[in-house]
Amino acid sequence: MLTGNGRFTVKNKYVLLLAVIILLVVILGRCDTDNEVTVDQVDVMAKVMADGDLYVEELFTYTVQGEYERIPRFMDNFGGANIEFFEAYVPPSDRELGNFGYAHLERYPVSLKTKSGTYYIQLDAKDETRQIYYRYRLDREAVKYDDRGELDWSALKADRMDHHNVTVTVYTEQPAKETLSGFIYDRSGGSLTEINDRWVKYENALLPEGDRARLKLFIPSEVLSKMESAEPSAIFSERLLEEQKLQQRYAERERFLKAGQHISRWLTYAAIVGIFYYALSLRRIFSWWSGRRIRFEDLAAMDPIDLMYYFRKGTFRFADTLAGVFSLHRRGMASVSIVQSGMRFQEDSRAPKRLPEFTFTGKRTDLKKSDRYLLSWLSHGTAVLKLENFSGPTKTERKNKKFMGKYIERKRKLKEGLRRWQELLDSENSKRIQYREYTARKVIIPAMALIHLVLLIYMYIADVTPWGWVVVLAAILGGVVVLASIRWRRKKYMFTFLVVCFFVAAPILYDPLVDEYLNFVILSFLLVGFLPRGVLDRRSEAYRSAIKRYRRTLAGGGHDVGRAGNDRKWLEKMREDALLLGVGERFMRNISKANPEFTFSEASPLFDNDVDAALDYVFIHSWKGINEETTLGRTWKSDSDSGADSGADGGSSYDYSSDGGHDGGSGDSGGGGD
Hints:
Blueprint: H1 12-28, E1 36-48, E2 54-74, E3 83-89, E4 107-108, E5 110-113, E6 118-138, E7 142-144, E8 149-157, E9 163-172, E10 181-185, E11 191-195, E12 199-207, E13 212-219, H2 236-279, H3 282-291, H4 296-300, H5 304-311, H6 321-330, E14 334-340, H7 343-346, E15 354-360, H8 369-379, E16 384-386, H9 395-398, H10 404-429, E17 435-437, H11 441-462, H12 467-486, H13 491-505, H14 511-530, E18 534-536, H15 538-555, H16 560-563, H17 568-580, H18 584-594, H19 611-619
Helix pairs in contact: 1-13, 1-14, 2-11, 2-14, 3-15, 5-6, 8-10, 11-12, 11-13, 12-13, 13-14, 17-18
């Protein structure tokens, strides 16, 4: 749609689709960088103290490419109160890890960023391999029960980078009288390689970014000799059985995720079939082929109301009332002139200073019922239609709140008038233009949303996500599914849901499934975009296809037949149609280039350079932010639910464009499926 400064916008669905494509490029694309830190090796020695504290010594080996002044060490508990201290040193060469201590060691400055749970080690490193020794103590990390003690500790969480060659050894300060029992939970294939009465050892060749190594250790109570016993939630055998069941879920995790991958693949195929069905339907192909045989002369001679009725699929917007005014003008029942705007516009810096004004010159008894109603409604019973009477508040008036009630009421009355005019047109056009809502969307969109919800929940269950988080995820996504299903006429809700699905699926640590599912999300975007809002009969669909081609011709400066000889009648018709179809400025710009010697304002006052900006201001910009039931700044519809897939952005004009760039149309055009 064209604005006063020459910009145009496209329908919401295309904007959202473009946003998703950009999002994919940003998220999935790899940006080259000269600076990078990799974790080549991690060795951890953790001692369970008799008082339940956990004393940890870690040796990280980093490879630094480029220059770094600090290196992050993420802590899973966000720098919580149970961290008694956290220190970083240059590792000694004369001691073994576990006995490094801190005496006579060079210490690095450390700062904590609590919100991210990250300690930053201050150092200067450039293109080198650097080792850092960390030591910290976690207060009461273990818990003691009468039958057994427990340590539930996330030894490592690869928050921002992969961790290679990981070894974690957990041992007790005091020897145990029996073999320890331990379980390790990660999603990258790590395992416990040693378990005895003194220690357990965990090894993993690669702990990828986003994964963590959670260790659950059952230790004899006598090892925690300096702790008081707590009351357990269950006996030891039940707690042990619970961990064994969880371990079994981890063991079966990959099998279930592979099944999800196959499901996503078949759903992707189904989405592709749906896209081809709607994009290349017989109805669309027929309308395109039949529309190409409709001549320019037939379109230019068409009544403006019929032109917009075809183009809008029977659902008018407020600015489409101009079609009724232009219809009267072509029949010689109304004249147009350019006049000075009223005082409130003259006093406002942003308001137009000159406006089109239409004067009725015929007999009302000669008009159809819809024409009489339009004239009475817009001219308030007079013979003059002043556009200023339909605008919202000026910038000056917005500063005074007492004016807002007046304009909210004006908007309500204008919407009611539009609805009544639409009803009269529907009754008059019922035999000529057959239009019906594409009700299959009522089934397709809720079904698609439900499929995505079920698949996402399955993915998270298969990925061994805690049940509490699964319930929260299901509740949040379920609410969005319900909203998208209730508002099935408005594609933006489904688009929003798919964007949420995109981000929700990304953290799953199984790339084959995530990649397959994201393909399904992208294709779902396309499928929703191709779902028609409504369908016309074949004849009407052919005319709509021709009108969309005609619109592109007008944007390029009009048809050669219309420009031939600078016939004022043809020029004025093209100018009116260009204004109605939202390409007024482009039409003026290109037709002026083609014939710079001709003074187009002599053909019609509508060729005045101020007309586009004036209509843009009256119908769109003056109403921005004035809310009644719908949000202004979007173009009004005669039905608040119909056609809500398109709208205007902050700088938009009266967009009449639903043109997808093909003669047969796209998106909301009535292709197939009925």
